[in-house]
Amino acid sequence: MLKDEYTNNTNNTFPIPKIIHTSFKTYESIPKEYNEVFKSWKTTNPDWEVKFYSYNDNDIMIKKNFPWLYDTYNNFYFDEQRLDMAKACYLYLYGGLYVDVNYLPLANIDPLFYNSNDELYFAYNNNAQNSIVTSFMGSKPKSSFWLTYLKNIIGDKGFILNTKYGIINSTTGSQKFTDLLESYNGTVGKLPYNDINSCTECNENCNQSFYFHVINNGNINGRFFSDIDVVLFKFIYCFLKKNWFLITFTIFIAIIVFFIYLWLTYKTVLMIPTFLFFIYKKITKNANDIVGNVKKEIGDNVSNLSHFIKKSPSKQSKKKEKKE
Description:
It comes from viral metagenome. With 324 residues, the chain is of the alpha/beta class. It is built from 13 helices and eight strands.
C-alpha cells in the first residue's frame, strides 16, 4: 500500500488495542536524544496510550504472569534476550504495539492498520534476508503465536561458540520469530518496512521514513550492534558489498602478477613438474613397448608350436605304417 493510500483511507476500523509498549533499563537512563520520542507520541498519536517499562518492571511482570518462564528469563546470558521475552509477554497480555524507545514518530500511525483485521503485524526487513523486525511488532491480545514463541525459547541457549549477536538472534530475536512464523496458521499483516525504518545493515545514520525517524540505530538499549565482533564483521561485510567489483578485479590482477613473478624468478623450478611428467610418459611408453614386444614374441612362438604339432604324425599312424 502506498503512503498516499494510507492518508486517504477513511475506513478506520481498528484491529488492535491502541497501546504502545516500550522498554529501557530505567526511565532515568534513557539517552537525552530520545527525550523527544515520548512528546512526539502525544502530539502525533494522541489517542494511543504509551506504556513505559523498566527492566525491573519486566522482571516483576514475568514473575507474576508467567512463573513457568521465570527461570528461563533469569538464565539468559544477555539483557537483549530478556527484553525479547518481555516484548512477547506484553503483546500476549495486552495486545497493541511494541516499539523500541528510539523510534521518533513523525505521523499518525493509524493508517498502517486500516482495512485489516489480522492477528499479528510485522515488518519484514528486505535488507536482512527478509527477517522479522523485532523493534516494531503489533498484535491482538492473547494471540497463540506468543505462547508458541515463549514455549519454544525455553532451554534454547543457542550455539555457545556463536557471537553475541548470533546467540540473541537465534534464541529470542529476529531469526527465532521468522522461523516460527513460517509454520504459524494465523493471519499476519505485513507492515511496510521502508515506511517505518529506513535503516539498512550498512547505513545506520538513517534518513527519515514516512512514519518514523530511527535515532542512533546502532546503539539502542546498549545492544549487541555495538559489540566489537559485530562491528568488525559489519565493517568487512559492508566494505565488500560496496566495493565487490574493484576487489574482484584487484584479486584477479594480483593472481596474474604472482604467476608471472614465479615464472620469471623460478623458471627452472617451475619446469621440474613438466620434466618429471615427460620422464614418466617416456618410461610408461617404453614399458608398454616392451610388454607389446613380449606379447608378440609369445604369440609367434605359440603359433609356430601349433603349426609344428599339426604337421607331426601321431604314434598310432606310425604303428599302422609298420604293420603294413
